[in-house]
UniProtKB/TrEMBL annotation:
Organism the protein comes from: Turnera subulata
Tagged with keyword Transcription regulation: yes
Keywords (A to Z) from UniProt: Transcription, Transcription regulation, Transcription termination, Transit peptide
Source superkingdom: Eukaryota
Similarity remark: Belongs to the mTERF family.
A single MF term (Gene Ontology): nucleic acid binding
Official protein name in the record: Uncharacterized protein
GO biological process: DNA-templated transcription termination
InterPro entries tied to this protein: MTERF (IPR003690), MTERF_sf (IPR038538)
């Protein structure tokens, strides 16, 4: 028989394990009404944990501190969920990850996010990596996905990871696009239940498959909380949006990612420039991206158009997409070229309107840069005003642009 104090300790450990049965993720197990919890499993696990804490924690904690720079407090906390008897197990994991292209910094991030990774078998880890690479993922892609969500390594390959990947691919219809989704929303490989609810709801209300795929590719986080998505859909319907149209999902992405206070702040910025709420909502319906920028950027863009260019709010309302454009990367660089042409007398002022900003990159360069003898000078001015990383090559060759 166990002594009374041992029984009490085991009961406390049972409570602790029940509360934290998912490790550092602190998720309470979901038990259906027809499913009974396996108390024997928890009891036996708690007994093992007592042994682990009493005999193995010192080594696990010291290993985490010496190898990965954990503080003593965080190492002791993490070691409660990590069974290590020697260096052989964690070193085998580190060797495997290094083989697959993980840097020391990548491995450190992985372990800091979930120390239990060091206790996984190399077979469990390699099977997930091999699955992703078999679908076309590069090793850098795999590193990004797994560092972003180490829980993938914990999940069953056959029961969770493969079905989750299949769900994503069924929506976007290719491995390339499925991997693109995972690089933005790696959590979907370990838990896609809420995203599935959201996607089925969008289908139910009449959103075309191509637009559902657009949301998953462009902003998968919108699908992560189905309750929020359903509430936003109702708000958009009240505004008059049609779920079958492309601008519906654009508006959904824009509005779903903002709190009510942030939304109201942006409304107030537009109102300060003389627009009513009815006019603002009409503009939002025509060009949802006008509410995608921060309130600060909206204010700066309006100030640029009204104060610098002398365009009234009515002019801007006639071409609302410009409100969703980047001031620094698109509007100011193009304006600098136009101002140079105006100062030379090359073009007339009446030809300067919002259509300048609506042209594609090549369209703008063809019409206002490449066609002039002093194209190199104009290009140099243009590149100086915008992010050079988006137009590589500088002024070496106008033809390349």
């Amino acid at each position: 028989m166990n002594p009374p104090h041992s029984t009490s300790l085991m009961f406390q450990m049972f409570q602790f394990q029940l509360k934290n049965s998912y490790g550092s993720y602190n998720k309470t197990p979901k038990i259906s009404q027809t499913q009974k919890p396996n108390y024997l499993q928890f009891y036996c696990h708690s007994s093992d944990s007592i042994s682990t804490i009493s005999t193995q924690t010192p080594f696990a904690a010291s290993y985490l501190m010496n190898t990965f720079g954990f503080t003593s407090e965080s190492a002791l906390r993490a070691s409660k969920y990590l069974r290590l008897k020697s260096r052989q197990q964690p070193e085998s994991v580190i060797t495997l990850l290094t083989k697959y292209g993980f840097s020391r910094a990548d491995i450190s991030k992985l372990v800091e996010s979930d120390p239990k990774v060091l206790g996984y078998s190399v077979g469990r880890i390699s099977s997930k990596i091999e699955f992703l690479t078999s679908r076309g993922a590069s090793y850098p892609d795999v590193v990004k996905i797994l560092v972003g969500n180490p829980m993938i390594l914990y999940r069953s390959l056959q029961n969770r990871v493969i079905p989750a990947y299949g769900f994503i691919k069924d929506v976007v219809h290719s491995d390339e696009k499925a991997l693109a989704v995972l690089k933005r929303a790696w959590h979907l490989l370990s838990d896609y239940a809420d995203a599935s609810v959201s996607i089925n709801f969008l289908r139910y209300i009449g959103v075309p498959e191509s637009n559902v795929a657009y949301v998953l590719l462009r902003e998968p986080a919108v699908l992560a909380i189905s309750v929020r998505l359903k509430r936003t859909v109702q708000e958009l319907k009240v505004m008059g949006f049609d779920p079958s149209k492309k601008n519906f999902v654009t508006a959904l992405i824009v509005k779903c990612g903002q709190s009510k206070s942030i939304w109201r702040k942006k409304i107030n910025v537009y109102k300060r420039w003389g627009w009513t709420e009815e006019e603002i909502f009409e503009i939002f319906k025509k060009s949802p991206r006008c509410m995608a920028c921060s309130a600060k950027n909206i204010s700066a863009t309006m100030k640029f158009f009204v104060k610098k260019l002398g365009w009234g709010p009515s002019v801007i309302r006639g071409c609302t997409p410009v409100l969703g454009m980047s001031l620094e990367k698109r509007i100011i660089p193009r304006d600098s070229v136009i101002q140079s042409l105006l100062s030379r007398g090359t073009i007339e002022k009446k030809s300067y309107n919002t259509l300048v900003f609506m042209l594609t990159e090549d369209g703008f360069l063809d019409k206002y840069v490449r066609c002039y003898e002093f194209a190199d000078e104009l290009l140099k001015l243009y590149l100086k005003k915008r992010d050079k990383s988006q137009l590589k090559g500088g002024s070496e060759s106008v033809q390349r642009l």
